[in-house]
Specification:
The complex is a heterotrimer of chains A (about 250), B (about 70) and C (about 350). Chain A is α/β, with parallel strands linked by helices. Chain A contains nine helices and eight strands. Chain A is globular, with a radius of gyration of 18 Å. Chain B starts with a strand and ends with a strand. The chains are: A alpha/beta (about 250), B alpha+beta (about 70), C alpha/beta (about 350). Strand 1 of chain A pairs antiparallel with strand 4 of chain B.
Chain lengths: ~250, ~70, ~350
């Protein structure tokens, strides 16, 4: 160490709202960064004690282990419907769902769109890594053209399987949502931007402003067959070209 | 510039390398030492260059790193 | 104040749910339970409770999961094809030990079927329907007033045992109107707090609702706990009705609206000198196996009458085995057998 800790202030540590559990994610996976950010936001807004998180099916099925908050683990795709049920039953609670590509944008399409359309006062975190991680690397609705996955071994063909779906843009067409944004975590600047966006998405719920969706471009180093650093570079250079970053809706 | 330092919770490190890439001062590198999970953990190779910016900790997906910064004298 | 009203079955179930303190109702329109949905749409908001027309039956059952997990009394209703859609959600509710009430106003099936009354969902209701080793309590009302009583009972049983409870009615019951006396409403705020629910982890360890354990030993224990619960329900909650069985040679086994029709058959047959009785299960799960077995020791024939190809008939045969003859009479397609046709069938089995 370069200097004694006694002369120093701790400026970064584990958020209070997270448990000590070790994340089960792969090395370099952005789920961990995102979870840490959510923990920070819970600390800043002091909401852990009245938050209910929803763990989906996918790599983040164990999300109920990370937060010092109540959680419900739910059926694949249904998190936005379950969030609706919790929030309608207990509007005083802060309810957030955390879903991957399959959960939010494939099997959960109807539930995602209609929770947004009803303007449910919930916060939805949508982790877009253009692949199905947990099940071994299959095509997602968000998979890029020519991207190789286990179910597109020759590369995704638009003719056979259509184009990567820009779900946030679809949700942004609806009248009800309060905040729809797409963020990324591939470098410090974007981590800071994402942190601000996620804090806003939770703050809007606390203020009763309505439905917030934060789509987060993330990596899957394992199934992309890249190192974590290469994966970050790929998001920065290629994925952001298909999924543009920024706020699509901000009615707050 | 204030000096800083980081502390690694070594057993949580998965050797992903994101902190090494994020550091703006080339402070960090793989240590060549494996933790109990078999990962080559990151460490401060050039500790005197650390400014305590926290970029490494912000990108660490496993909250391995605590960051300290020298108090600036008033 | 207890009120006496003339209501159709669908409305009685809805009103009974409200009076039982149902806080949240989520459903998708489907015939023949539209009146249930409409009653909830009109009355729930007036009482400051939640009504949401969900985007599908799948969404509705998952909204129920969320509300149930958050500790409130909650219900959904549908009809046969919609109940098929809910099966995954029902399995999740059962696996997560969540209380909820699910109403099936059964119609003709399979597939789109038709909207006439039927009893062709008995297997779906009592033998799973969804995946995994689980059961739900299934209650089969046969009159409009009983539909109201069993709906209120359903909420109590659901909370007591932390289990989904199904009201298995049919399109006939849903549509017919009878005078009912409804009890005083329960205020949801007066219901006991559910310590296990996701109500915000202030001052306690977090509560987690889940139906998942990657460790086989853990999942085995989860299943053992469920099985123990089901045994307890089997020991304590069986309900059935016996009519004129003491000296009967032949007994009709029937549930729901057809059982009510069979009561007329029993009356008519007795007038003609036939020693006939009726065994009417009210809990279809747990099935009143022991009572039926005991009865079958005393009679020649147990004739199952069902508006199906013979589904409860299998449970009757399991309970009775070789102790008595177990013929079947049924109608499919939404056809409701007349008392005359059932009586003719009875006569074939008495010589």
């Amino acid at each position: 160490m370069s200097a004694s800790l006694q002369n120093m202030t701790k400026v970064f540590e584990r958020p209070e709202s997270l448990t000590d559990a070790r994340f089960t994610y792969c090395p370099g996976c952005h789920h961990g960064i995102l979870t840490r950010i959510i923990g920070n936001v819970m600390d800043e807004l002091d909401i852990a004690e009245r938050t209910v998180g929803i763990a989906p099916v996918g790599c983040s099925v164990f999300a109920y282990l990370w937060y010092k908050a109540d959680s419900q683990q739910v059926a694949h795709g249904r998190a936005c419907a379950v969030a609706t049920g919790i929030k309608r039953a207990r509007p005083d609670l802060v309810v957030f769902s955390y879903q991957g590509d399959g959960d939010f944008a494939s099997i959960g399409t109807a539930e995602s769109i209609h929770a947004a359309n009803r303007g449910e006062n919930i916060t939805v975190i949508f982790v877009n890594n253009q692949i199905y991680g947990m099940t071994g690397g299959e095509m997602a609705p968000t998979t890029l053209i020519d991207q190789k996955t286990t179910t597109t071994p020759y590369g995704r063909s638009a003719e056979l399987f259509g184009y990567p779906i820009r779900f946030s843009e679809m949700i942004a067409q609806l009248e009800a949502p309060a905040y729809v944004t797409r963020q990324a975590l591939f470098d410090t600047k974007h981590i800071m931007d994402a942190t601000r966006a996620i804090k806003k998405a939770f703050q809007y719920q606390v203020d009763g402003k309505g439905f917030s969706l934060v789509e987060v471009l993330s990596t899957c180093p394992t199934n992309w067959r890249m190192s974590p650093v290469q994966a970050n570079k790929y998001v920065a250079e290629t994925v952001t070209g298909i999924f543009p970053l920024g706020d699509l809706v901000d009615r707050g | 510039m204030p000096k800083g330092t980081v502390v690694f919770d070594v057993e949580r490190c998965k050797g992903c390398g994101l902190c090494i890439a994020a550091c703006p001062r080339n402070v960090l590198a793989f240590s060549g030492t494996l933790n109990r999970s078999g990962y080559d953990v990151a460490h401060m190779a050039n500790p005197e260059d650390c400014i305590g910016c926290g970029f490494c900790a912000m990108t660490c997906p496993d909250i391995v790193i605590e960051v300290y910064r020298e108090k600036v004298p008033s | 104040m207890a009120e006496r009203l003339l209501l159709r079955g669908n409305e009685v179930i809805a009103e009974a749910a409200i009076r039982a303190g149902c806080q949240c109702y989520f459903a998708y329109p489907i015939t023949p339970q539209a009146e249930l949905l409409e009653h909830m749409a009109r009355h729930m908001p007036r009482l400051g409770r939640t009504f949401v027309q969900a985007e599908s039956e799948v969404a509705a059952i998952n909204m129920v999961y969320g509300a149930a997990g958050a500790g409130v009394r909650t219900m959904t209703s549908s009809s046969s094809p919609g109940i098929s859609l809910k099966q995954e959600g029902i399995s999740y509710l059962a696996g997560a030990n969540l209380p909820a009430v699910i109403v099936n106003i059964v119609r003709g099936g399979p597939g789109l079927g038709n909207i006439a009354p039927s009893q062709c969902d008995y297997f779906q209701a009592t033998k799973g329907g969804g995946h995994g080793d689980y059961h739900i309590i299934v209650l089969g009302p046969s009159t409009v007033p009983e539909a109201g009583e069993l709906t209120m009972l359903a909420f109590d049983l659901a909370d007591q045992y932390r289990i989904p409870v199904m009201i298995l009615a049919d399109g006939l019951l849903g549509q017919m109107m009878e005078p009912v006396t409804l009890p005083d409403p329960i205020d949801p705020a007066s219901l006991p707090v559910k310590e296990w629910a996701t109500t915000g982890a202030k001052g306690r360890a977090p509560n987690i609702i889940l139906s998942f354990d990657l460790d086989p030993d853990g999942l085995k224990q989860m299943n053992l706990d469920l099985q123990a619960k089901y045994r307890s329900i089997g020991e304590n909650e069986i309900r059935y009705e016996e009519v004129a069985t003491d000296d009967a040679d032949i007994v009709i086994a029937a549930y729901g609206t057809i059982a009510r029709i069979c009561k007329s058959v029993v009356r008519q047959a007795r007038e003609e000198g036939i020693k006939i009785g009726l065994f009417r299960p009210i809990t279809l799960w747990p099935f009143p196996e022991a009572a039926l077995r005991a009865l079958s020791d005393k009679v020649d024939t147990i004739l199952t009458v069902e508006m199906s190809a013979g589904q409860m008939w299998e449970d009757v045969r399991l309970a009775v085995a070789e102790r008595a003859k177990t013929p079947f009479f049924g109608e499919m397609g939404g056809i409701v057998p007349t008392p005359r046709s059932i009586l003719n069938e009875v006569k074939k089995h008495v010589r």
